[in-house]
Amino acid sequence: MTFPLGTWTEIGSPAATLIAGDNDLYATNPDTGDIWHWNGTPNEWTQIGTPGHIFVAGTGTLHGLSPDQQVIYHYNGTPYHWTQIGGPADAIAAAGDYLYGLSPGTHTVWAWKIR
User: Is residue 1 part of a domain?
Assistant: First the structure.
């Protein structure tokens, strides 16, 4: 979909957070915390998962830290299909082909090569 240059276009209902990576946009529901993926057309969203502590997007990837911060998940591209890849963690971040995490307590920085 193409939007007019220099104007704002409403594409969805209220969200608690926005997560963007590559050309993908995700949002969390402000009431439930569930995560949704924008399909590229205004008001066309697909729920892809349940609440998380934090979600981060890298180049063509999405990861989530469980609400209790005990498990790190990788989104497999199909709604509700997530694979555990680690945990626990105090925080996660993504950039390029890497996922980063802070170990609980010590905050030692770890890196995971995504591809």
Answer: no
Please tell me the total count of domains within the chain: 1
Amino acid found at 81: H
Structural domain harbouring 67 = 17-113
* Domain-located, residue 11: no
Residue-wise pLDDT for 50-104, tens only, equals 999 999 998 889 999 999 999 999 999 999 999 999 999 999 999 988 999 999 9
Looking at the domain assignment, is residue 6 inside a domain?
no
The percentage of the chain sitting over the pLDDT mark of 70, rounded to a whole number, equals 99
> What distances in angstroms separate CA 14 from CA 1, 6, 10, 38, one per listed residue?
21, 22, 10, 13
> Residue 71: phi, psi to the nearest 5?
-140, 135
